[in-house]
Amino acid sequence: QDFFKKYPSGPPPAFGDFYVSSGYHYAQMMRLTGQDEAALGAFRATLKATNTMERAQQRQLEAEMAELMVKMSGKLTGDPQKKLLEEAKKISEELMWVQDVWFGKAIALLAHIQMLQGDMDGAQKSVDSNWDVLTQIDNMLREDAKENPDVDLLKISPLANCHFMLGVIMQGEAEKALAAGEKDKAKDLLVGKVTGTTPEKKQKRSAGALLHLATVFVDYPATGWAPEAGARKQKIEEMLKGMGVDVKVNIPAEKLREIEK
Predict the structure, then answer these.
(1) Which residue among 2, 86, 171, 181 is the one 20 to 30 A from 122 at the CA level?
(2) What pLDDT does 193 receive?
(3) Contact 75, 90 (CB under 8 A)
(4) Helix ranges restricted to H, 117-260
């Protein structure tokens, strides 16, 4: 942080690349250790060097900072939450002007902001109407990851954010249903509605909160949403056990080792 204080208005052009690289890596380190306020400060400071970075790099920094703001605002209430969400919304709307991976991230973030502002139906409609676009971006990242196995490209997939958000919405609605004595409705929200049967005569279900959150925890472990998704997954499994529903998402041992890394 003392490093950033040396350049309150941003670094001189000749020092720009080192400043941006150092700022970004410091932000990531703070984020990974749970020091979100410090990470946000690092993002803000790094973005003072926009005159020395490529536009694509600036868009990445803005998208990751907006995502961090949304994550942080989920733990806030009142004016602090409102202010942070308004800033994240403004950044996300600006990201919508270019159709790249950060365009997909912006769609996911704007829907998540709707959820945090209490518009659950609007958030779900936003995701549903853009699901094909978000899936295309996710598939593109998966293909690129095959050519770059040392880089976890899925950590920037907009689907991670969407699965997390849908899981949170459904979990919240299930808790309300359970409190109202509507056990069947709660079960459908948690494990999905029955949509048919497989050739093996097993039930086919739509995605419920448990599957959405397990998907984040297992398939997108490097995202900022994964730790909370794992905790929520465990809570849902305990809820289902208390309801007499024997449903659990089993994670292969090799996948657990990958997540732990």
Answers:
(1) 181
(2) 86
(3) no
(4) 120-129, 131-147, 158-179, 183-191, 209-219, 226-242, 253-260
Residue indicated by tokens 């536009």: 55
pLDDT at position 158 is 94
DSSP H/E element including 205: strand 203-205
pLDDT of residue 65: 97
One-letter amino acid for residue 228 of the chain: E
The phi and psi torsions of 196 (rounded to 5 degrees) equal 155, -160
Exposure string over 63-75, b if 16+ CB within 10 A, otherwise e: bbbbbbbbbbbbe
Contact 165, 112 (CB under 8 A): yes
Single out the residue of 207, 204, 218, 124 nearest to residue 162, CA to CA.
124
Query: Residues 41, 1: contact at Cβ < 8 Å?
Result: yes
Q: Look-up: residue for tokens 């849908």? A: 166
Buried b / exposed e across 95-106, counting CB within 10 Å, b at 16+?
Answer: beeeeebbbbbb
- Supply 213's token pair: 């959150």
Length of the chain (residues): 261
